[in-house]
Specification:
Distance between the termini: 27 Å
Strand order of the largest sheet: 2-1-3-4-12-11-10-7
Mean pLDDT: 95
Number of domains: 1
Helix content: 25-40%
Shape: globular
Number of strands: 12
CATH superfamily: Class I glutamine amidotransferase (GATase) domain
CATH architecture: 3-Layer(aba) Sandwich
Number of helices: 8
Low-confidence stretches: 1-10
Length: 246
């Protein structure tokens, strides 16, 4: 084995992605991770065998979104094991990222309440606002730039977990992002999406869109206006955040 190959192995990092739907993937986070030498493993948590040893040993745990509730453990028993897994990661103070359902599961693991939002589903494109009671860190700034809209798709919300720093809000729901220490980040919105990737969402979530009276055509039209700017801002954000936590 060459010296270069040995060096690459020594510097290899591992990211474990907990997935609830195959088409809701890490999107724009993929390239920044690979730039930093990450090998990426994705686990389908609905069929996974817990406990997950790799969730303890990986360099970054990413928990993605999905259309179920963090509180719905009777219908989806794996959620109990997933929350326990996330709780162990948080207790160990190891890097973890939760997006949408992932952020809600993080909140649940920290004994915060997760519940259906009183203002209905927040689906579509809108900007973030910095939380009024705190100054967001510099690595979060790309998502707050004027002219950048974030993609939202959730019906549930959560109370801010104990010890968390509130980062962002929207006009519809206050708790859109939180950070704990320098290792845990929860995002209610979806910075990872791309215009191409969202085409799979429009098919996979067709029933929900129909129930909400929202057309895929309208979301696609808004995506043509906002997706490219979000992907650029999110890529910058991912790189800054990864450099901060690693």
């Amino acid at each position: 084995m060459s010296a270069n190959n040995i060096s690459m192995q020594k510097h290899s990092r591992r990211a474990l992605v907990l997935s609830h739907l195959s088409f809701e993937d890490i999107g724009s986070l993929d390239v920044p991770l690979r730039e930093r030498g990450f090998d990426i493993e994705t686990v389908d948590v609905a069929t996974a065998c817990f406990p997950l040893q790799q969730a303890e040993s990986c360099d970054l745990l990413v928990v993605l979104g999905g259309p179920i509730g963090a509180y719905d453990q009777q219908n989806y028993p794996f959620l109990k094991d997933e929350v326990a897994c996330i709780g162990q990661r948080l207790a160990a103070r190891k890097p973890i990222l939760g997006i949408c359902l992932g952020a809600q599961l993080m909140a649940a693991a920290l004994n915060a309440r997760v519940y259906p939002g009183q203002h209905g589903a927040e689906i579509g494109w809108s900007p973030l606002q910095a939380a009024s009671n705190a100054d967001p860190p510099e690595w979060f700034a790309p998502l707050l730039v004027s002219g950048v809209s974030l993609f939202h798709w959730h019906g549930d919300t959560f109370d801010l977990p104990p010890g968390a720093l509130h980062l962002a809000e929207t006009e519809v729901y206050a708790n859109q992002a939180f950070v704990i220490g320098d290792f845990a980040l929860g995002l209610q919105f979806h910075p990872e999406v791309t215009a191409v990737g969202l085409e799979r969402w429009y098919v996979g979530h067709a029933c929900e869109l129909n129930h909400a009276g929202i057309s895929a055509a309208s979301l696609r039209s808004s995506g043509r206006e906002h997706a490219a700017a979000l992907e650029n801002a999110a890529t910058h954000f991912w790189r800054l955040w990864l450099d901060h936590i690693l």
